[in-house]
Amino acid sequence: MGRIIAITNQKGGVGKTTTAINLGAALALSSLPTVVIDCDPQANTTGGLGFARDPGRRSLYHGLLLGVPLEELPLSTSQENLSLIPSEKNLVGANIELSEQPEREHVLGKKLASLRERFQFILLDCPPALDLLTLNALVAADSVLVPVQCEYFALEGLSELLDTLARVRRTHNPKLAVEGILLTMFDDRTNLSHQVRDDIENFFGNRVFKTVIPRNVRLAEAPSHGKPIFAYDPDCRGAESYRQLATEVISHDSQGVGEGAQRAYSGA
Amino acid sequence: MGRIIAITNQKGGVGKTTTAINLGAALALSSLPTVVIDCDPQANTTGGLGFARDPGRRSLYHGLLLGVPLEELPLSTSQENLSLIPSEKNLVGANIELSEQPEREHVLGKKLASLRERFQFILLDCPPALDLLTLNALVAADSVLVPVQCEYFALEGLSELLDTLARVRRTHNPKLAVEGILLTMFDDRTNLSHQVRDDIENFFGNRVFKTVIPRNVRLAEAPSHGKPIFAYDPDCRGAESYRQLATEVISHDSQGVGEGAQRAYSGA
């Protein structure tokens, strides 16, 4: 049974798309069939995997709102084992159209079930907003991976996101676990990067991925060539970091993500 | 060298005072000289340790603002190895008077240094506010222990506190670590308690104490008798939970509190 991971942070520019593409590619490189679903009308993941932003092609929009079965939508990418359900700008309208559906937060989750048989990992790249598309992703997901850019207000945004995750757990998806907080754009030479890393690790302990994604120009360039980093520059530091991240994510499978530490609740 | 732990949460009624008294007493029972400093003008910790709220007696106020050396202030309590620096209502004025001091956030920290030789643990019971007294405690402390009541809005308050802690780390005390998040008033029979525990463990992983403090009527009664739980009902579940908490806090000494997990920062 495939695992559904929502990659989310309501802030833009924190590395969601880079992570969706390259974590997906790294999982596929480990021979694990993986599909990345681009839930963002900006369609950056679609473009970054080499597909033109084509409103004529069937996209997640057709699956969500026009009744096309989701299993018909995955496109093969240039990388073996990696598929994509693309986005396009019509998805902007999905927020409004979804709001008129019964159980509007559960539309994506119900349709995704069929993909769990075929793919080991289903990565949902969320839009940079706490909108109905993101809410559908959080309700559909088994766990949430939160990329956090190493910059001054990293923590302020995080606490807002935690409130949202807590609310989703209370209302729609009590099983939603934290896959991990991923530090991105880490610049070893700046004090600020180290300070942010210390803060986040101090507060969130083992909920922070051991892997840290460095600020790396090759990671930034790869999407404009429509390729995952492993096809563009497989030996750069950015590529290495995403291979490590995939290893961590795979290891969570056996450990049970989000399981609380053993407790000594006395007298219970 | 004694360790300074601030017990803080800007919410009232979460178990700060109960924790200051009974964690302090449990540490003292382990033959570790411990002083509890009552930083709250409401003086509940002072009362709960059997001292009348006496504005005539020298208190933390005299140490902070009237130049009395802090090492002259600890009172012996009925329990061996446990001392108290009491509070009284004049401490209300400390917020204003401190604001006129140079380096107003560091007043307590500078004065506390002398107590580190004499006590193994220095517990600061903070007022239920993010005021200048609490700020002084956070700046003085090595670590912060955050009691969280198992109730619906537990997480909402926590994220606000995290923002404050991050700001203190940036501005005044970069070494401030998270001793742990302590779940209090856990009621095994209610879904809500379990839900809150799951949420908090899901987000904060190993930053959450394994010990959970149960809702326990004996813990609630003990302060009105001016006694730690170990003198009032040493065999109740509440007493057992604070013994376990002390064991966890002591074990942090050797492990290094708040140290981030080892990281695989690739290519650094």
Beta percentage of chain A is 5-15%
Question: Helix coverage percent of residues of chain A?
Answer: 25-40%
**pLDDT < 50 runs, ≥5 residues of chain A:** 258-268
Q: For the record, give the distance between the C-alpha atoms at the N and C termini of chain A, rounded to a whole number.
A: 34 Å
How many individual β-strands of chain A?
9
CATH class label of chain A: Alpha Beta
Strands of the widest sheet of chain A, in order across it, are: 3-4-2-5-1-6-7
Radius of gyration of chain A equals: 18 Å
Succession of helices and strands of chain A: EHEHHEEHHEHEHEHEHHHE
Q: Give the overall shape of chain A.
A: globular
**Overall tally of domains of chain A:** 1
- CATH-defined topology of chain A: Rossmann fold
The assigned structural class of chain A equals: alpha/beta
Let me know the CATH homologous superfamily of chain A.
P-loop containing nucleotide triphosphate hydrolases
Multimeric organization = homodimer
User: How is the main sheet of chain A built?
Assistant: 7 strands, mixed
Count the DSSP helices of chain A. 11
The CATH architecture of chain A comes to 3-Layer(aba) Sandwich
Q: Mean pLDDT of chain A, nearest integer?
A: 91
